[in-house]
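User: structure tokens for this one?
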Amino acid sequence: MVDGVYAIVMTLLVLELSPPDASNVQEVLQRLQGLEPKAVAFVIGFVVAASGWAYVHQVGLLFTRSNLLHEVINLLALMFASLIPFGASIMGSFPHTFYGPATYSLIVGVLTLIYALDLALCQRTLIPPVVDRRLIWTILGLAIAAGLWCLFVGLVIAPWNPALALWALGLHLLAHWTCMFGAQRRVRQAAKAAQRWHAR
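Assistant:
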């Protein structure tokens, strides 16, 4: 289900990029330049959705079971993930205002904190004890810091300087992918240990 929601979110993003209605090449080129804010919004939205999807796939490997709380929190996360195309639409429609960067940053911040909440509340009962808790607390600490950073970007930096807010959001996304690549081997080893423990 998670894959399906993120796939739909990524697909909806491209609907904002409608082809220009023009009669000659010169007019087409001029109107394509007008699509630049929507293209930027599309790229940011796609990276945001891909980041959420990748996090679920990587950290989700640690969970060997599920329960109602885990499912409800993940449904709440998917609700906010579904808002990513809305953020793209806001940014594409109001390119020189703080609305787009603020909307994106708030969506990413809340989504990140929801996933952190899931890990904090469900790790003790759904992740086997063989998984090193230091790894879990590291992931949790980074997620909380990232979520709070994005809320700060959306609520403080974006109204003050929208361009700086976009750079700050980009910095968050770069840090997110860097951490995921850095932790990939440890998470996969922990997931294999968890699966072996669960299969006993």
